[in-house]
């Protein structure tokens, strides 16, 4: 399969930041350095050949037992070109910080807050990084694979 316009332009513009690419069923994926995520996202949004102006989703994947353990995954769509791209930023458990992409797409606001709440990822430069689904006194991050199933929380008793 020929490399897509998106993946080709990304690897040309950020040769040191694109760790790998692949395509599956018409969707492009780029594995990128977390240190360049904001620059990459601005490029994808602003380049006239790409115009990824719609952030569809942001999530985190926990690969317990693998290093780097976490991936922050961005799903982007270009309305002008009817194309999708998935970015995966690899994150070691020892450094769960990455730049916020709220300056690129305002829709990232609540996605990043959810990822912070559920996984503990710190989005640097986020305008209001605080819990969104759980209360402030909640201890831990419940979507991590090593979160104890019957952990007792300060305001809620154990599940029997």
Biggest sheet: strands side by side, in what order?
Answer: 1-2-5-4-3
Structural class comes to: alpha/beta
Low-confidence stretches: none
Shape: globular
Radius of gyration: 17 Å
Secondary-structure element order, N to C? HEEHEEEEHE
User: How widely separated are the two ends?
Assistant: 53 Å
| Total helical elements | 3
Q: On the 0-100 scale, what is the average pLDDT? A: 93
Oligomeric organization of the protein chains: single chain
Residue fraction in strands = 25-35%
**Percent range for helical residues?**
10-25%
The total strand number stands at 7
State the major sheet: 5 strands, mixed
Keywords for this entry:
19% helix, 5-stranded mixed sheet, alpha/beta, two-stranded parallel sheet, 3 helices, 160 residues, 7 strands
Provide a compact summary of the structure:
The protein is an alpha/beta fold and 160 residues long. It has helices at 5-13, 37-46, 108-119; strands spanning 18-24, 27-32, 54-62, 70-78, 83-91, 97-99, 122-124.
């Amino acid at each position: 399969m020929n490399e897509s316009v998106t993946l080709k332009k990304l690897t040309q513009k950020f040769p040191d930041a694109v760790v790998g690419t692949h395509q599956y069923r018409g969707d492009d994926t780029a594995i990128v350095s977390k240190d360049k995520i904001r620059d990459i996202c601005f490029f994808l949004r602003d380049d006239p050949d790409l115009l990824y102006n719609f952030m569809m989703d942001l999530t985190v994947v926990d690969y317990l037992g693998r290093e780097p353990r976490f991936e922050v995954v961005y799903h982007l769509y270009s309305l002008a070109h009817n194309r999708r791209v998935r970015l995966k930023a690899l994150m070691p458990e020892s450094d769960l910080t990455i730049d916020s992409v709220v300056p690129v797409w305002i829709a990232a606001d609540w996605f990043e807050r959810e990822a912070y709440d559920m996984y503990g990822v710190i989005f640097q430069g986020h305008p209001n990084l605080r819990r969104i689904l759980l209360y402030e006194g909640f201890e831990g991050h419940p979507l991590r694979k090593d979160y104890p199933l019957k952990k007792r929380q300060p305001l809620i008793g154990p599940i029997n």
